Amino acid sequence: MFILSLAGYEGEGAYAVEDDDGEKALYIFEEEDDAERFVGLLEADDYPQLTVVEIDPEVAIKTCELYNYRYVVISTDDFVIPPQTNDSI
Questions:
Q1: What whole-number distance in Å separates Cα of residue 55 and Cα of residue 84?
Q2: 66 SS3 class
């Protein structure tokens, strides 16, 4: 599985999307191609440069649960579009 991170800061954090309630959720992509496409959409909206990072899904999910952080697993059947602002990085 794959997450997005700011280029040059891959070990320091991950891209998360803020929902309408102001809570952030980590996007975990099942497929690298889907993650790369989402990066392209973000770049088209002038987001900072992001990179795709392969992760161990069990570790990522357990970490999210440990810190009570929301996450969303993006499957190949899902269609996600970037939020309207880039405040979620």
A1: 27
A2: helix
* Residues 28-65: tens digit of each pLDDT: 999 999 999 999 999 988 888 999 999 999 999 998 99
Separation between Cα atoms, residue 17 and residue 9, nearest integer Å: 17
- Which residues touch 35 (CB under 8 Å, ≥6 apart)? 2, 3, 4, 29, 52, 74
- CA–CA separation, 17 vs 58, rounded Å? 20
Higher-pLDDT residue of 82, 34:
34
CB 20 within 8 A of CB 85: no
